[in-house]
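Please, structure for the following, as tokens.
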Amino acid sequence: MHETKIPFGERDGTLFRAYEVENGLRCGCVCPGCQQPLNAANNGEKVVPHFRHAKSNDCFDGFREGVRRAAVALIAQHKHLMLPALIETVRVATQDSRLLEEKVELQPVATTADRVERFVDLDGMRGHAVLHQSDRQLIIRIKLSSRMEHERYRLLKGLEHSSMEIDLNHLTLEQINDPASFEHAVLHDPANRNWIRSIRGERLAAIAQQKLQSLAVELNARSQLEQAERVAAEKARQIELDKEKAELQLSLEAHRARQRQIATAQPATEQDNTVQGRAELIAETMLKALQAWGGRAVECTACHLLSPPESQFCLYCDASASTVNPVTLSPDIPLTIHKRMRCSAKPTMSMKSVPRLLLRPDLKASAGVLITPALQKDATQ
């Protein structure tokens, strides 16, 4: 960033603010960046004291170099610095894609160095200050630009020491000129600094990572056990279903054989295979269910004839897709049977689903029920 108002001038290796020296060229100061003479502007009532180049040039570093050197001088003088906060989330995924998380957090804390080195060369990169404490080092970068220095951050992360950045880019000339405000921004403000690399944070993150990985191993083992149990249960259920299916098939084959045996002595008639005849059979089986089976029966979904309540299959037809459903009949069936059949579509549906019955129902218990001519007419519509 090019800044024409320079907050610090250099004289005999020492930095001064403009109000600390004589006005104009009598200040005897040079630019911290290009080492060219400066004019001190410190007499104005409305203008914040500052320096300007005595002659126009292409210097872009006077502002940044002066502020940076002044900041490093404060750090070296006090050997005391507020460290940044650190908040990081460690994540580990389980085999079933469940995400385990743990937060690693360091609060801002002040540290005191045994000694401070200024502007240290670090494998071709400059650390603006390096704090030494016992056998540990902390590299400090002073940021005075809005530009992100991704390559420099990458190089710093590759070093074996912790590193942090103090961002002074947003300081105004008034704040820089105020020694207390400037000192607070450089040494104490936790809001303007962040870690580039934190060795302690990495250790805590590694501990959290190991903890989460152990938990993930435990959860994975539990998940695998539950999956194995589910597979075994499903296999057992399938075996049971296959067994039931085989038993049902055997029962159906035995039922069909019994149907054929009964059909020799009790065959269906041609009348039974008409809509009128089917209506009579449906009504007769309803009455038999009431008289002989206590009003309980099962109804075939194909032919709509009723079979005894314990029946697993329809006794009278062999429709492949038919099932039987339990029904309970009202005691008033004998009085309402004709009205019920007159408005029922079951005879027609029965004929469509089962054009021919295998055998005729045994209607001895319901003998004497007749279908009136009116009902015959309705049943055929």
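Residues 257 and 263 are 10 Å apart (CA to CA). The chain has a mean pLDDT of 91.
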